[in-house]
UniProtKB/TrEMBL annotation:
Lineage per the UniProt record: Bacteria, Bacillati, Actinomycetota, Actinomycetes, Micrococcales
Domain called Bacterial mobilisation: residue spans: 74-115
Top-level taxon in the UniProt lineage: Bacteria
InterPro entries in UniProt: MobC
Name of the protein this chain belongs to: Bacterial mobilisation domain-containing protein
Amino acid sequence: MADRKRQANQVGGRPHRRVLVLTEAENVELRVAADREGKSVQRYLVEAGIARARGVDPQAAHEAITALFKVEHQLSKVGTNINQLTRHANATGEMLAAELREELAELRRCLGRLDETVDQVSVEARR
């Protein structure tokens, strides 16, 4: 199921309303930014405003999350390859040492990227 663009419904609704007056350029820029993130303009404004109020840079948070998803994807691919090599070794008694070394080296690279990303998130969280 795709993420919804609108904010989740709240019990009792949202009793407070804010009205913005924007230039055409500001309106277009907000629509483009919200569309890029798959959100409504209202949801985008609320999330960005609250994030800033809490001292979080939304762009940095988005970049960190994206980096974590990339590392997760790479780790999943490496895990699949290692499982296939293990299955081959168990079925045939033959261990493909060169391929296993390559996958373990890739695993180490992924773990290094994960460490870097976690360090980056930690630095951002302390700001």
